[in-house]
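Quick start: read one record
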Amino acid sequence: RVLACRRELVAYDRNQRDQGMTPGGGVPRVSGSGTLLTSPPSTSSLDTVAPPQSLPVATQTHPGRCYGCASSATEHCLTLLRALASHAVSRQILCTRGLIAELLEHNLRRGVVQVQEEVRQLLCLLTRDNPKATEDLRSLLMDRIALTLRGHVCVMQLFLMACKDSRLPVVMQSIILPCLKILHNLIKPEQPVSKQNKDKAVDALSTIRPAEGIRVDVTKWLQGDAKHSYNRWRVHMPSRGADTTAIKPLKKEEVRALYLMEKYGNRWRNKTLRGIVPLRLTDAAWLKQVLFNPSSRLARQVACNMLESLCQVPARKKEVLDLLTGFLSELGPAGESAAEFLALYQSLVQQTPWKQYLAVRGVLLHLADLVTREIQELHQLEDTTLTSDLAQGYALKMLTELLASFLDQESIKQQYKGRLVGAVLNGYLSLRRLVVQRTRLIDETQEKLLELLEEMTSGTEEETKAFMAICIETVQKYSPQDVRTPVFIFERLCSIIYPEENDVGEFFLTLEKDPQQEDFLQGRMLGNPYSSTEPGLGPLMRDVKNKICQDCELVALLEDDNGMELLVNNKIISLDLPVREVYKKVWVSEGGEGDAMRVVYRMRGLLGDATEEFVETLDAKSEQEVNNEEVYKMANVMADCKGLQASSNSLYATNMVVVIMLDRLSAIKDIARARPLLQVLLKLFRLCVKVQRNQEVLIQSQLGAISVFLGILQLCLAGESDASQGTVTEQLLDIMETILSKAASQPLETFLSYSQTFGGPEHVHALLTCTTAAGVRGNASVLLHLTKVLAALTYGNAEKMALLCDHFKVVTDFNKFDFEHTPDDEQKLELLCVLATVIERNAIGNTLKDHIISLGFVSQALDYVSLHAPSLEQTQSRTDSDDWKEFISKPALKYILRFLTGLATEHEPTQLAVSAQCIPTIHQLEQVSSDEHVGSLAENLLEALRAHPQVASRIEEVREETRAVKKRLAMAMREKQLGALGMRTNEKGQVTAKSTLLMEDLGEETGLVCVICREGYKFQPTKVLGVYTFTKRCNVEEFETKPRKTVGYSTVTHFNVVHVDCHMSAVRSVKLWFTALPHVCSQTTCSDVAISPQPLGKSSVLERLLVRAMFRDVPLGGLPNRSRTLGID
């Protein structure tokens, strides 16, 4: 249909064009074969002869490539030839023109079956009754048969010739692949096709099977080793195939036939073997071209199968492995076309002995070189192209996996990891830098290299030191401007020096009720074991407790942290601890790893006080002293380890790791760009300065470490913007502080020589300017470290010390500070106090203290104290007076005390200057309690002054005088208080009563006593006593004959006496009354209080109280109080 449509379109187009060009001309038409024809115009007479130019003329066309057209044309031609061959004359002409040879060569074996059958019929028709044609056909057939019979001779020649054009798919498919199949069939028989054996391999059907790997060491056999005896060899030999044919007695003729078969078969075998050349595998170009040919996967597979068939004998396998090992360099250019080769190579080296053989031959180092070469090509593409191939990195991945398969053997890894770790590390770092050429294969290769690196770097301490040396050698290979690649190396060094604890992943919890509280706690946790990732089980143990309360409907304990307690490993766990930390440090540390953490919950105090250990904190390191030299002992390698490459620079004469680290640090110019490198370098430096060896290295003058740190510090302070930057600055200052403290512990001459590397005063000025920055002022830790560094930079340098002190001179006028000061002045004075405190307490730090004293800062502080302190009247002035309160409240006083304390610590001139005039005043201040903690500050100052013997004696004299005065005042107050009690102190210091008359008033109650207060009318004459009674309504006469009997009241008592006031007070305090009721009324039941009569001789006041109590109308159980008693509510 499509062809018909195209014909109509072409005809219409040609028709329109011809009408425009030649009016009245012929109308074009299209032939059945698609050829355009021109028909003549119509004529009025049929017998009119058309001129020659009007005859149908076919236009020139080019031969097409349509299979249908060619097949149709062939069929038409065969039909025409068959018609011509039916005539003798034309048949003879066709034979003489070579039609028989052409049909035999081109048409007999091509086309469909119908065409081939027509060709055979045509050949038979041409040779019928034609001896000459028949002889020609016979001759052609015999030539082809002879050529076929001699084809095995030229198969290899044809194969080798075709391998030169193996890149052509046609040659590969038509020549090379059939030849390979022929060779493979010669090497290995075809698979059996019989119904009985079609599912069995050829090896399973053979009676003699190769026994690879079963060998006997002659030396050990001679030594009598049981593992190399004949019996042991016989056991490991494969069993012989079962003989399925039944043994029958043979006849004489059959025996003779078998003999002749063996005789002549052996002759043929010996004759054949005489001409076989021993196997010598060289660098066969044809094999390499076929194994890595990109055109045919089937050809590659057949070649691999052929090689695998040759490896049944160990000697041949060795030769094949040596040959294939030489082909490993072709993996890069071949790419994914080497998949079959790699599968073959992996299968051949699967057994351990062959891996060991190849390792000895150096295949591991060869693989490492190939990996490095592939990575270099990737980097070249990274630098020169902007496009990438998704298959990029296939060869690199396969080489890496092949290398990893060798290193799976522990013996090979132990022997070669030292020589391979450098290549693996460099390869991993190089792959991390790829951006454009990064593919999934490269990512997988990078992960594999990291896995190999992890396995190869875990070993003994000596191996670890060797790996650290390789890391440093690798760092030196990269440009100082490369701020990405060295990050991983320095991170590895940090993890080696101080391995950080890995966070645990998912774990499980089993929540169980205390078996002893089954009857008291409802519900049960039915979801055991619970995953730690389940909502409600973290992060704190309190969340676990709340989930238990919610699931078990213990609502009363939900918000009560004291009602329920959780136990892990029979230890009570604080609810504020993280669940993961409890699992890691309580459960796993005691052997529970791999099992679900068992958590027992119970109510607190239900069965008595708990006897289990209470775990409140898990930070065990803070409770014991940490020995840095032992914990960070691997950091010593950083000072002793030297790279494997020598340097011409004298600065690198030792080529130590710290030098390389300083070089990397000094190369940083942009903090934002190099932040990861800066952070890991500072982390590594902080670990290094934990040990003395590295501190001694870093204070060497030729390294100039402080100048490098100062340059980075100024960059950090200038770019202070966020919390992470503040952390970096704090770490940097901490490192500098440690190094400078170590340098300050050296002799003065050594430090002065070392301080020449600190640079000029500009560093001090820059750091002083940074102290006013918001990021520094708001961070107390950074400010403290910065002040220590500032002080250390100025020791022994008059110019720097003058610059530092000039910064604080404006705030040393303390009188002006009291009158008026700004927040900046207060911050400067605070910084001055911190500076005085952090100055080194040795001869080097005393250089700065001496300079401060020479500027008069100390004298100004002492004059301020002497001027404003109240006068001491023989040190007996009271500190709570208004003068002292005013003096204590002055703003500058607390700063002066802190400033003097810092300077006076282990500094004799300051101690003598302060002790000359201010010790009594300071001693008086230490007794003061105020919101500014002036007393504590003054006490700290006196303790600092006591380091000097003479000053200490002076302080003790003042304190002793104060203690004597206070003792006298206390004794006088004591005598006064004893006198008020009628007591005194005798000569022996014993307290005795002044007179025995006081004992006369002490006596016993002789009358009624209140059951509540235990006192009567003797000691409480103004309180009215009553008696508890019980009153109830009853009939006066039981046998009265009236219809309505007379009702009266019956009152009884056990004579429990009570004060009316005591009773009323107890009634008002309901809780107290119910507490006292069992005691006061324990002998009988009572409902009223009856007033008891007063004793004789009492005052009229008591009489009035009795009358008032008697006529007090108190309801008695809802009835009127007829007995004048007090009702009990």
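Residues 153-191+279-324+344-348 form one domain.
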